[in-house]
Design brief:
The protein has 293 residues and is α+β, with helices and mostly antiparallel strands. The protein folds into two domains: 174 residues, Jelly Rolls, CATH 2.60.120.10; 104 residues, Arc Repressor Mutant, subunit A, CATH 1.10.10. Strands 2-3-10-5-8-11 form a six-stranded antiparallel β-sheet. Strands 1-4-9-6-7 form a five-stranded mixed β-sheet, with no helix packed on it. A hairpin with a 2-residue loop joins strand 6 and strand 7. The longest helix is centred in the middle third of the chain and has 18 residues. It is globular, with a radius of gyration of 20 Å.
């Protein structure tokens, strides 16, 4: 699908079209030009066109599930679940290919809004550069804020101040994660290699997370350095990363097995605990997800 203009996507659509494709997201307008669009697609999807929104708009993308490949002009970016990106992309051509079960929250932040919330000028300049600033892995608190905002938009809550507060929480966490002018990478090459070793061991399990002390011993790092290193590189602690990976695997299992069977395979002895964890991550109960897939 070609020649799609982004300004035709980030608008309020007729109810019968909302959620039918990535071209018709759930949309909400907030204060001073701040807006949010929630994109979901159960199947793979491709779209291309041009970003034609105002040059003063900063885009904040939070990938909640699935993955996508985004080509912007001549650059290609691969985004996966838990990635967060901020960029200013006025007049850039784009092509987007998504995986199945893709879900993304996109906030449009205006300079007027940043001024209203007293954002320092040096920080505003960072986020208005015309390029992908940096992608980072987000933490559990940002996921909770983003998921809560998406659900409130979907259900049509009339409490506008509450929805705006949710959007502010997402923006606040996003700004905290992406600080291009103040890089905090203090890890040596050896430490990065050891963290990668721990990362691979951590995600090789899908039932029970290895203990921090065992990961530290295996990687050759202290427990403290392991946890700070994970937050520095992956944007969250080892257990939060493991849990997100575990729930992504749950979606795959639920297409073949019952909720109880899936919970058992993932190491849960209490089914309600699994259901609560799944809902925290994806905003819906596993039984609901299973019926739709």
């Amino acid at each position: 699908m070609k020649n799609i203009r982004s300004s035709h996507i980030h608008i309020k659509h007729p109810p019968y079209l909302v959620g039918q494709s990535l071209l018709h997201p759930v949309f909400n307008q907030f204060h001073s030009g701040l807006s949010a669009s929630w994109f979901t697609s159960e199947n793979t999807f491709s779209v291309e066109g041009v970003f034609d929104n105002a040059s003063s708009i900063i885009r904040c993308l939070v990938i909640l599930s699935g993955s996508c490949e985004i080509r912007i002009d001549d650059d290609i970016y691969i985004l996966t679940s838990q990635d967060i990106v901020m960029a200013n992309l006025q007049n850039s051509k784009f092509k987007i290919n998504t995986s199945h079960d893709f879900s993304c929250l996109e906030l449009h932040i205006t300079l007027e809004f940043l001024e209203d919330i007293k954002t320092p000028s040096w920080e505003t300049e960072i986020f208005t550069k015309r390029k992908i600033l940096r992608k980072s892995k987000f933490c559990l608190s940002l996921r909770k804020a983003a998921t809560s905002l998406c659900l409130s938009m979907q259900k049509g809550f009339h409490n506008a101040p509450l929805r705006c507060a949710m959007a502010l929480a997402v923006i606040g966490h996003s700004f905290e994660h992406i600080q291009e002018s103040h890089p905090q990478n203090t890890l040596s090459t050896i430490e990065k290699a050891r963290l990668d070793k721990a990362y691979k061991l951590l995600l090789s399990r899908k039932d029970i997370a290895p203990r921090i002390i065992d990961l530290a011993k295996y990687s050759g790092l202290s427990a403290t350095r392991l946890k700070t290193g994970f937050r520095e590189i992956y944007g969250c602690g080892p257990y939060s990363l493991f849990q997100a990976h575990r729930m992504e695997h749950a979606k795959i299992l639920l297409k073949k097995y019952s909720v109880t069977e899936t919970a058992i395979q993932l190491g849960y002895s209490n089914i309600s605990h699994f259901s609560a964890a799944f809902q925290r991550q994806f905003g819906k109960l596993p039984n609901t997800y299973r019926k739709k897939n």
